[in-house]
Amino acid sequence: MIVTIIGVGLIGGSLALSLKQQGLAARVIGVDRSPENLRKAQDLGLIDKAHKDLAAAVAPADLVVVAVPMDAMLTVLPAVLDLVTERQVVIDVGSTKAALLAAVQAHPRRARFVAVHPMAGTEYSGPEAAVPELFAGRTLVICDAAGSAPDALQLVETLFHQLPMRLVHLAAADHDVHTAYVSHISHITSFALALTVLEKEKEEQRIFELASGGFASTVRLAKSSPAMWVPIFRQNRLNVLDVLDEHLHQLQRMRELLQQEDYAAFAALIEQANHIRRIIK
Ligand code: NAP
Predict the structure, then answer these.
(1) Beta 139-143 vs 113-118: how paired, if at all?
(2) For residue 201, what pLDDT is reported?
(3) Which of 17, 117, 122, 228 to mutate to test ligand 1, by most ligand atoms within 8 A of the CB atom?
(4) According to the model, what pLDDT value does residue 156 have?
(5) Looking at residue 215, which CATH number applies to its domain?
(6) Of 111, 141, 171, at which residue does a domain stop?
(7) Per-residue pLDDT reduced to its tens digit, 136-175
(8) Ligand 1 pocket residue status of 10, Cβ below 6 Å
(9) Domains identified in the chain, total number
């Protein structure tokens, strides 16, 4: 297969490496708004050829992957669908789905598009962050599959199955609710924790010396880029607000219990939180 990747960063670059490593892509063409990232992607062997022109990059592709931030996705995906023929397949890898699917719902080539979200990533960005093993053993969410042509869906399912990923089907609206809980809120709490510590603890050397594994793992996501996360919060604003309200309520409960020195109730609350072990080992 010839694969064209638009946005040769963490996810686009990792997918290029995975598809090549599994022998699923014979040739990978890269397009990016950043000439620097395109050059790096070529030097790192993520792509075989860099293109400045979208139409020239899309024309030879069997599969086109749109892997740009979510704000750009709303214009880049329709522009790609304007270019593809009935023999080509297009996927996105975006973190929010309802707004994107609404943007292409009436497009004459909608059926050539399969909306997917690989539930895999890191806090790093750009082509240097790309790794070949990012997707192995993780979940791929496929959204609103009824709008995709059967041959396009089959190609995408076969491909990701071989990476290998677990495939889950969801409606776009449900995807956005669930990711607000499992992904978006954890980034907000990590950003808030980093800000809290940076604001209150002025002795940076002390943070560095005392930071334990617990602090490092809770604050890891706060290294993620605003260019990627602000568009996600904008597109999933209502779901994130809902989850954030619940989160603030839980924080407020803990604050009150501590203020009232009600340690028995605090212990009961922690025990209740420990039930997360049932879901995540
Ligand atoms: P990234 O590492 O920042 O890569 C995005 C690349 O797209 C950058 O090279 C960027 O260039 C380029 N770009 C931006 N606007 C563009 C445009 N209009 N046309 C062409 N190229 C453009 O981001 P990423 O983490 O791979 O995220 C890509 C997508 O994957 C996002 O939609 C995100 O929601 C989704 N996703 C991310 C994760 C994660 O953990 N990071 C996980 C699953 C899904 P500049 O550097 O110049 O902006």
Answers:
(1) antiparallel
(2) 64
(3) 228
(4) 98
(5) 1.10.3660.10
(6) 171
(7) 999 999 999 999 999 999 999 999 999 999 999 999 999 9
(8) yes
(9) 2
C-alpha closest to that of 232 among 186, 197, 192 = 186
Residue nearest to atom 17 of ligand 1 (CA): 33
Which amino acid residue places its CA nearest to atom 14 of ligand 1? 68
Question: E strand or H helix at 207, and its extent?
Answer: helix 204-210
Q: Are residues 167 and 180 in the same domain?
A: no
For residue 165, the CA-to-ligand 1 centroid distance in Å is: 21
Across the range 94-123, mean pLDDT stands at 97
Distance 7 CA to ligand 1 centre (A): 6
Pocket test for ligand 1, best of 95, 176, 235, 236 (most atoms within 8 A of CB): 95
Nearest CA residue ID for atom 12, ligand 1? 7
Sequence-distant (6+) residues with CB within 8 A of 46 are 5, 8, 12, 13, 16, 17, 28, 30, 127, 130
Closest residue by Cα to atom 33, ligand 1, is 94
* Token reading at 250: 């839980």
